[in-house]
Amino acid sequence: MATKTQINAFLKMIVPIAVRQCKKHDNKIYASVCIAQACHESGYGTSAKMVKANALYGVKVGKSAYKYGSAWKGAAYKTGTTEYYDGKTATKITDYFRQYDSIEDATEDYLDLLCTASRYKGALNQPTAQKCIEGIIKGGYATGPQYVSHIMAVIDKYDLTRYDIGLTEWIPNAGSRATIKKGSRGEDVKYLQTRLNALGYDVGANDGIFGEKTKAGVIRFQSDHSLTADGIVGSKTWNAIE
């Protein structure tokens, strides 16, 4: 099992890659889903298979070894895995999986597959991350009976939906945000601005600088939600915003 240090190191590495590649693919797949699948499939980067082959997503070669883009160069490795063909019975098999030159290539190929193969069209441009992962599973990506709940648990635990709405860098301990106010700077401020804009409280650019316009937006939000309208974002305001 991955340690907290390993998990944070993996998320710090994969978050900007996933956000960048999802944007390259027109955000048809949620970055939160991309990140969570990478975490789940690779054991937060600790899987020996992943380390040797940069095989974050466990994508099989397939009978035709079809290339959905240019990220996969054709290398492969053979290993055992478990499938649930009837949705409940574990079956051990051996198959060939795609090997990559880098984590960036693995992530790009995963998205090329989902955005190109017709069987995954039900995963694209969905209204929620859960609908997206459900579409991926319906397309045949995995057979585990609890796969959707596993992915959603990772998304919820690490607050990964933040990366669907503008954040680009991993922030550890997302569940315990610092109190911020006018003069504060950083990713928490950027996230605050992104959320307020999305909720209809125009605070201008998501620049990570808590200025007068951001304070005014916070005060409007607090007033509308029966909070102390002081422009200071503490735990109660964070809870309401999230």
Protein architecture, described:
The protein folds into 2 domains: 4-164, Lysozyme, CATH 1.10.530; 187-241, PGBD-like superfamily/PGBD (Muramoyl-pentapeptide Carboxypeptidase, domain 1). The protein has 242 residues and is mainly α. Strand 1 (76-83) and strand 2 (91-98) form a beta hairpin. The longest helix has 21 residues, at 4-24. The protein has helices at 4-24, 31-42, 48-53, 103-116, 129-138, 147-157, 187-198, 212-224, 235-241, and strands at residues 76-83, 91-98. It has a two-stranded antiparallel sheet. The chain has 9 helices and 2 strands, in the order H-H-H-E-E-H-H-H-H-H-H. The protein is 44% helix and 7% strand.
Oligomer: single chain
> Span from first to last CA?
29 Å
- Class derived from helix and strand content: mainly alpha
Enumerate the spans where pLDDT stays under 50 for 5 or more consecutive residues. none
Number of strands: 2
What best-fitting shape do the alpha-carbon axes yield? elongated
Secondary-structure element order, N to C: HHHEEHHHHHH
Brief descriptors of the model:
Muramoyl-pentapeptide Carboxypeptidase, domain 1; Lysozyme; 242 residues; mainly alpha; two-stranded antiparallel sheet; 2 domains
Tell me the layout of helices and strands.
Blueprint lengths: L3 H21 L6 H12 L5 H6 L22 E8 L7 E8 L4 H14 L12 H10 L8 H11 L29 H12 L13 H13 L10 H7 L1
Antiparallel strand pairs: 1-2
